[in-house]
Amino acid sequence: MKKSLLALAVLGAFAGAASAQSSVTLFGVVDLSARYVDNGAGKQYQLAQDGNSSSRIGFRGTEDLGGGLTAGFWLEGALSADTGTQGLTSINGGTNNAAATFTRRATVSLAGGWGEVRLGRDYTATFWNSTIFDPFGTNGVGSAGNLAFVMTGVPQGGSYGTILRTNNMIGYFLPSGIAGGLYGQVQVAAGENVSGQKYFGGRIGYASGPFNVAGSYGKTQVRVSDDQDGTSFNFGASWNFGFMTLSGYFGRMEVSDLAQDNWYIGATAPIGVWTLKASYGEVSRSGNNFNGIPFVGFDGQKADQIAVGATYDLSKRTALYSTYSYLHNKNAAAFTVAPLINVAAGGAQQGANSTGFEVGIKHSF
């Protein structure tokens, strides 16, 4: 439910002063599901969340400054709807952010015909390109992100804190509608002497008619002490045939000698009020040291996942959904479709398969 809270004229003391219009919108999503997870190390029934969309609550607003120029803000926080508490989704930058309210996005921006300049905390260009082509939107037990767009275990005081979002960011977005369908962005984030926070990245794409293709690249200072960098690049594409949209993705992350490759293919088919979804993806890891430090068990890890799901729209804002996924780990891999709650390491077990099923409801406002 979108509510315009105020529209007022700002009168100046000088002749020819113009009026400016402002609006503020309250928005959010509540998404809960009944979920079953079997991670090999244990089984669990859960009242889970974010099976279809990430639960959130936020405020956004714009002000018309005249001459085609607008100012805006966006404050969005994660919501743990299963317990009614504040969510701590995808927090980067250390424990100093643990009490943050707007962990999903907190930005202020200035936009015009030349594009948009945005400052604050936001998605990284590299993550956005990985989630936009996933039929499940990297949510729930079917998420392609279960095969980890994450370089885990960077040792010796290191961190890769910009997998999803980045703090202290300045970004520029190309204006829409240029060159027939070209779009893109570039971002730079100050590290402020925190490992895993200094980031530079960008994304460029082209969308025209049924076709959409985009690529992105990012570099993160994973360890301040020796200026160690990690890099990430990916590209994805989709084609809407009308009765079905097919998509594909490939991405690679590297830190020192360690590397991780992800790819997936997906399909989305709308049938009346129904939307059917399916995806298949794989991950593989290579390398055995970080700056000469042995990194045992990483090299040779592999896993694959198949997921199917369906969404039934009760209205434009409310939907029922169901998803099933099966994840097969190989060698020492320990990926899961979802963690077990209040269980050490989420119940992940090296070489064990993981299965998940959920039925839920999503309501947007």
Protein described:
This protein has a single domain (34-51, 119-364), classed as Beta Barrel (Porin), CATH 2.40.160. It is built from 1 helix and 20 strands. The longest helix is centred in the middle third of the chain and has 7 residues, at 125-131. It is mostly beta strands. Strand 4 (69-80) and strand 5 (85-86) form a beta hairpin.
CATH superfamily: Porin
> Do you know the CATH topology?
Porin
Under the CATH scheme, which architecture would be assigned? Answer: Beta Barrel
Low-confidence runs of at least 5 consecutive residues: 1-19, 90-98
Helical fraction: under 10%
What is the string of SSEs from the N terminus onward? Answer: EEEEEEEHEEEEEEEEEEEEE
Please state the CA-atom Rg, rounded to the nearest Å. Answer: 22 Å
- Main sheet? 16 strands, antiparallel, barrel
Strand order, largest beta sheet = 1-3-4-6-7-8-9-10-11-12-13-14-15-18-19-20
N-to-C terminal Cα separation, in Å? 5 Å
- Determine the structural class based on helices, strands and strand pairing: mainly beta
Number of structurally distinct domains: 1
The CATH class is identified as Mainly Beta
Shape, per Cα inertia axes:
globular
The helix tally amounts to: 1
How many strands in all? 20
**Proportion of residues in extended strands:** over 45%
Mean pLDDT across the residues is 88
